Each structure stands twice: as structure tokens, then as C-alpha cells.
Amino acid sequence: MSDNLINITVDGQKITAPAGALLLPVCLENDIYIPNLCFIEGMDDPPASCRLCMVEIEGENEPVASCRCRISEGMVVKTNSDEILRLRQVAFRLLVSTNDGRCKFCIANHSCDLQKIGKFLHQPLRTKRLRHIDRDYPELIDEHPFIVYEPKKCVLCGRCVYVCGQLEKGYKLDFANRGMDTIVSFFGSDLDPASQDCKTCLACTEVCPVGALSSKVKWQSFIAEVKIKEKK
Ligand code: SF4
Ligand code: SF4
Ligand code: FES
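Above: inputs. Below: predicted complex with iron/sulfur cluster.
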């Protein structure tokens, strides 16, 4: 065995992985599903903002976010206790409390991570256990020449901001405002030649785990289909 490979145990399963690797991707690579929204492979310093990936680690007093936890030799991890399920359910309810829940009219319907996680956690997208918060945003922001943004679907995971920042040209979108008013905002527009970079990129739309950020072309053809179905 190579020197930098170590052994850990997750839910009773023995796993060998590189020392210092992040626990979340190690589990995912070994077919142990842990819900996650704000993590992307390659992140050095994950924001750990969605709080969906909590796990228990033997010897730790509190559950930890697996996306920020580096593995060490002999680590024993539990991903499926009742306490962990409860914590994830609370985090999920908070996330969906601001979501418009209009899946039928969403380009990500049936491929949305929020739907998948809701099923995994036995939680509906519209929850009666937490007051729904209707954020005061338009349904659609479509000033960008190639991208549309639906703020009421956005879970503020930050994946789009992260991938855009990794590109050579740097951030063309970022979070604006604070707290409940946070939103993803574009610096580029059709008046800004920099946004032409987006035309062949669209990386942010590909990592969006929900239907909040989409290629304008794809979104327009999706809406055309919805309208045709509604007329039938
Ligand atoms: S399309 Fe690419 S360059 Fe444009 S905002 Fe998205 S990630 Fe950034
Ligand atoms: S637009 Fe999508 S990727 Fe960006 S923060 Fe919102 S949900 Fe996450
Ligand atoms: S994936 Fe770990 S907190 Fe979001």
C-alpha cells in the first residue's frame, strides 16, 4: 500500500483513501451518498454553507460538515444516525423555506438536486413546519445576453460564483446584498464586451444544482414547450 493511503470506516464499510482527502468526496466515490449542495470537487476551502452534509465522527463532540473534514487514519464515521437525519432535515427545511416550489415550471424538474435531496431526507419542497418566506425578487432576471437567473429558485449555494472565479477571466458574477436579500448578480451585460466570454462558457449554469441559472437559449426553448403543453 502506498504511504499516503489510509484506512477509515464509514457506516461500517472499510475505505482506503489518500491521507488528508476531504471526507465528502471520499464517501461519494465509495457509493456512500451524503446530501450536499454547496460543495464542488476541487474546492480547497469549501464554504460549508448548506449544512446538508453533516456526519458524526467518533471522538468528536459535535457533528461536522463532511465537505470540510479531512480524513485521518482510523477515523470512524457515521452518516446515517437519527441525529444526523434530524440535522439535515432542519437544514433542508431552511433551504426550501424561500424556494418557490414551482417544479412543474422549472427547467431543472426531475434533474434537480433539491428534489433528489428532499426525497432522500423524506422532506417535501413545500414545508408546513416552517413559514414560507417569499423573497421580494422578480421571478426572472434576464438582462444577461446568454444567461437567465430565477432568484426564487436559488439556494445560494455559491457553486456558480466559485466556478466563475476559477476561470482565467475571473468573476463575472458574485453574490450581492446580505442576509435574506442575498442574490447572485452579474457584472456583465450586453453593454459589457466581457460578457461575450460567457457565450462559449456557461460553466455557472452547468453547476447550478437547481433551476436558478440557465442558458438563455435552453430556457427559451423550455418555456416554449411549457406554453405548447399548456395549450393542449
Ligand atoms: S458563463 Fe462562465 S464566465 Fe459567464 S458568468 Fe458563467 S461561469 Fe462566469
Ligand atoms: S444560481 Fe444556482 S449555483 Fe448559483 S448560488 Fe443560486 S443555486 Fe447556487
Ligand atoms: S456540502 Fe457541506 S455544507 Fe454544503
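The CA atoms of residues 38 and 159 lie 6 Å apart.
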